[in-house]
Amino acid sequence: MFETFDYITLQQYWWIIVSLLGALLVFLMFVQGGQTLIFSLPKDEEEKNLIINTLGRKWELTFTTLVTFGGAAFASFPLFYSTSFGGAYWVWVAILFCFIIQAVSYEYRSKPNNFLGKKTYEMFLFINGSIGVILLGTAIGTFFTGSEFYINEYNQSFWQTKSRGLEAALNLNNVVLGLVVFFLVRILGAMYFINSIKNDSIALKARNVIKTNSLVFIPLFLYFVIQLLLREGYHYNEASIVSLVKYKYLNNLLEMPIILVLFLIGVVLVLFGIYKAILKNTTNPIWFGGIGTILTVFSLLLIAGLNNTCFYPSSYNIQSSLNIVNASSSRYTLTAMSYVSLLVPFVVAYIYYVWLAMNKKQIDKNDLNDKDSHIY
User: Fold this and answer.
1) Distance, CA of 367 to CA of 306 (rounded, Å)
2) Whole-prediction pTM
3) Backbone φ and ψ of 35, nearest 5°
């Protein structure tokens, strides 16, 4: 089947797959958002244990999706891997470190004779949910703003800054995207608590968290979207010559109306989820906020790489900018990988199944005393 596809069709197909996995990752980072609330939301140790244990049921889904997203991106577009990881390694090392300490924390927080103490591992969870998320959002911001690298005729990349990727934090638009993701996942985390924990006090405080964080998230998101639609973008033509084009991302949305519709639906669903959480007192806002997040992030990633757009621009040498054509694997590799990609719907179905199985009943204090349950 995939053997009949044109090379460019395979490249577009894989950018769509990578974008979908990235969108799923951002949604599942509600775990990270919830972790930033473990010190401010609960009123006592029992409520904190409820929060951490309901997040503990889902953290592996986020971690697995992160690995899958990274693996798919780097396998389908290896020049992006060698350029980004080989040059901006300090920011990626920092991100990976933040996610490693998360895994360690869930594993050892409640172990007997824990010599570091629970507080240390709880602080690790907070670092993962705050610094890790902001750094990841800031790094993704370079998909639109660019990074300082040069690629020679042998596809060897040379980074032009000694900070090795950390300079992305000096760009306001990158930082804004990092903060947008940070406040979004906090909102999603609070929505998840409403849905998964049977505790009126936590639910009430979670709704207040959604309200206060939305007051910051919405203006930041509007700023990011407006500046993105009004900014120049990196366009490449059939001869692979890269040039700056005004309103590139706005044009991408207008020239690909399906993506525009998905984006608008996503934004409306996120806002509707916030509305449901704050004003309607329901327990299911996570479904609206979650699906809306997936559609919105999916759309933004699509316009970053489709319609002859460079998804990893070089602000140092514009002709070194990476796109789905010059950064992709061979046709043979993409074809073989495409058959593997047919498992993606099963992965999504597995996530959905695990979600329903773990959330068939809301967690309460009795679950913390169940000897048959794993306590985080």
Assistant:
1) 47
2) 0.94
3) -65, -25
